[in-house]
C-alpha cells in the first residue's frame, strides 16, 4: 500500500480528503501545516506528497523548497492542492519542481488520477534505473582486462577443435580465421626453408595462445602449425578477437607484453642457433620440449629425433651423436622416441 502525506490546514477538507484517499487503498499521513509536513516527510518518507499552498507557519512553496533541498526527500513526487488558480501561481509551483497542480474545489477522482499517474511515472523511472544499473554492472563484469579474462572468454564462447598427433592445424599460406587457446596437448609452428628443410619456429603448450598472425590485416599465416601430440583447442574468430581488443585497451597492453616476450625468446633462440655449440643446442632443445610437454620433470619426453633436430637447427645425425654423448654421461636415458632427463641441472649447465 502506497503512503500519501497530505498537508492541509483546513481540517474538514483534510479529513474528508484523507477518508476518500483511504477508500482508494492509500495509507494517509496528515499534517496541519507546512512545518509539521516537512518533519513528517523527512521522518516517514512517503511515496507522494499532496500539499496545500496557503497555510500558516510555512506555505506550500516553502515546503517544496525545503524538501527539494533534502537528499532523502527531493525525489518524492509533489502535488500542489490549492485555491490559487492564477497562471503565475501555477507556474511558480511548477518552476519550484512540483509534479502537478490540482485546483480547489476538486473531484476526488481527479486527485486520485493525478496521484496514480505520478506514482506510475516514479515506478517506471525506478525500473529503468534498475535496468541501467544492471546493464552497467554487466558491462563492467564482462570487461576483459587480463589474459586470464581473455582465456575465460575463450572457454565460455569459443569453438572446440580436436586434432590427432601429427595432424596439421593450419598451413603456411592459409588465411587467418581463428585465434586458438590450447586446452590440452602441444603444437609446433614450422616453416619450410628454400632447401626444403623444416625449421621449427615456436612450441606452444597447454594454456598458450597462438594463431595471431596479424591484428589489423587479414593476412595469410606465414607458418604451418602441427600437433606434436593429441590436442584440444578452443578457437575464437579473428573478427571477434579484434572486437575484443578494440573494446579492452588494458588487454591490448597485456597482449603486447606477450608478443614482446615471444620476440625476446625468438631472438634468444636465433642467437643460440648461430653461436652455441651442438651440445648446448641439443641440451637447450631437450629442456624446451620438457617445458612444453611435461607436467612433471621426471616424465619422459616423447618426441621424434627429427623434431628435436629441427628445433635445435642441426642435422638429425648430429643430434643423435649429441644424445649418445649425454647418455654416456648419465644425463639422459633414451629408448626409442622416449627421452628421460636424469640430471636436469647437468643438462642446464652444458655449454
From TrEMBL:
Keywords tagged on the record: DNA-binding, Phosphoprotein, Transcription, Transcription regulation
UniProt modified residues of type 4-aspartylphosphate: 52
Flavoprotein as UniProt keyword: no
Molecular functions per Gene Ontology: DNA binding; phosphorelay sensor kinase activity
InterPro entries: CheY-like_superfamily (IPR011006), cNMP-bd_dom (IPR000595), cNMP-bd_dom_sf (IPR018490), HTH_CRP (IPR012318), RmlC-like_jellyroll (IPR014710), Sig_transdc_resp-reg_receiver (IPR001789), WH-like_DNA-bd_sf (IPR036388), WH_DNA-bd_sf (IPR036390)
Residues of the HTH crp-type domain: 276-345
Ranges for domain Cyclic nucleotide-binding: 163-245
Domain Response regulatory: 3-119
Gene Ontology terms: biological process: regulation of DNA-templated transcription
Record-linked PANTHER family: HYBRID SIGNAL TRANSDUCTION HISTIDINE KINASE C, TWO-COMPONENT HISTIDINE KINASE
Protein name in the entry: Transcriptional regulator
Organism: Pseudalgibacter alginicilyticus
